[in-house]
Inverse folding.
């Protein structure tokens, strides 16, 4: 008698049947207790990892610089931030959007001027 799964020889009388397959005892046990797909502990640590990384807030160097300037010098016009940081306005906007999303900065209208300031 041969196991249909691992092809090993099964001693007479020790074969198991599972969904119509002749299996050795090892394979039979394997199939009865399939490996757990989601380990609750792994899920838990993945979650707390995500949580940590969002509370630690990893800023890019540019984002850090933006925050420093705003902190030291108060609200700034986007154009002057671009000039200071030597980046394009589209790049600035992306970082501004990210920082705004983290509730670190916000836009402010002063008269007709749009300013970026700390939250
Ligand atoms: Zn087997």
């Amino acid at each position: 008698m041969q196991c249909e799964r691992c092809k090993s020889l099964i001693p007479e009388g020790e074969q198991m049947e599972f969904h119509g397959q002749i299996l050795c005892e090892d394979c039979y046990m394997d199939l009865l207790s399939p490996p757990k797909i989601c380990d609750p502990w792994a899920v838990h640590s993945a979650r707390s990892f995500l949580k940590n990384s969002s509370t630690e807030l990893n800023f890019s160097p540019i984002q850090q610089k933006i925050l420093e300037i705003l902190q030291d010098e108060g609200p700034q016009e986007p154009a002057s931030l671009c000039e200071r940081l030597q980046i394009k306005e589209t790049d600035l906007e992306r970082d501004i959007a990210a920082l705004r999303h983290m509730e670190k900065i916000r836009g402010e209208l002063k008269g007709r001027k749009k300013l970026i300031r700390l939250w």
The longest helix spans residues 40-56. The chain has a mean pLDDT of 84. The helical segments are 25-32, 40-56, 61-73, 78-85, 89-101. The pocket of zinc ion is lined by residues 3, 5-6, 8, 23-24, 26-27 (CB under 6 Å).
